[in-house]
Fold this protein.
Amino acid sequence: MHNTLKVAKWEIKRNLKNKSFIIGLFLTPALFLFFALLPSLFGDSDDKPVVTQVYINDQLDIYGDLQATVDEHALNWDVHTTDISETEAANALDGQEDTAYIFVDHHALDDSMVPVYTSEEIDSFFTHDIQLLEEPLRAMQMKVAGLSDEQLALVNQGVTFDERIVDESTATEANNKSGESGLDPMERVVPAAFAGIILLSIVFTGMMVFQSASQEKKDKIAEIILSSLTPGELMQGKIIGYFILGIIQVVVFLVFIIPLAIWKTDIPIMEYLLVPELLLLVGLAILGYLLFASIFVALGATMADISTSGNFQGMVLMLPFLPFVFIGPVLNDPSGLFAQIGTYIPFTSSGVLMMRLAMLEDWPWIEIAIAYAILIISTWLFMKLAGKIFKVGILMYGKNATPKEIWKWIRA
């Protein structure tokens, strides 16, 4: 174990002194911040939305109700009364921006038609917002039609469909869910997103294990290193070292991103993040890393030169991206058959289960336990196999190992 830690420490120091690694360490979050802040850099310096000037020609004595509706829905309007006629509206709008004239007259009662004249440049949401004025106008129509206040209140109340589940078992499940309906979705999304960032960061860093093993073999320094420690210690040291480097990348990334998220949103990020469920999700990320790192370090030992990688090596390097195949089925039905299948495949288990847990309100604990068992057993198995491959492959020069040769090493 002592030699393993020495290898891990050496890998960490070697990369932290590498200019390319240091630049990449800070460049990724810096680019993320740049593109996140880019709209505000070219936006209005006051950072205030443009207020739409709305002029209402009120001939039905309904201006007070219209103003109340604007205030109730917090529309970004500055409302005024006006005596301008429709024929004068076009001239009044000449050269104006974010301005509208609304004419509320007998046509609103008789034909349900309200003329609206707007400037050429106006808030894109204005067309949607103006529909909110329909409520007071409909109330005026019904009042003119002779409906009493009680009838008006009943009509405006609308109809709500209360669906009742008849099946007893389903009803019990629905009642249980209704008791938890107050659960904020962000309580699931934030920890899952955090664990996903950890998984992606350390897996991408884990790919550097592949490059490191391949480069040492190419430079023919593996023999020198193995003169003072075993192949297993070298392999394990690399895996631990690059795991720590991945965690360093995560910490740097979050130091940039969390303050930005707190500043740009009203979401209490830290409150959602520091929950017990986070440990389970981070555990998935760590198991996923160990699984892929063992594969990558073994693969690197089978190659004479990284630039000569063949189809077989390329296919193996794509394994961490397999969970993306299940994005569609998981988003459509996180409890469906395809989502469950993805949960039980070792190469997709971590990513698919994180996506599912971010969407599900009630976590399937039995499926989680099975997925954890599969990941632990698979990680142990691939570590053992990687040790066999690494032991032989790291000392073989001149060509890339074929799948047939790798299979012989495993069976030996």
In short: The CA atoms of residues 62 and 136 lie 8 Å apart.
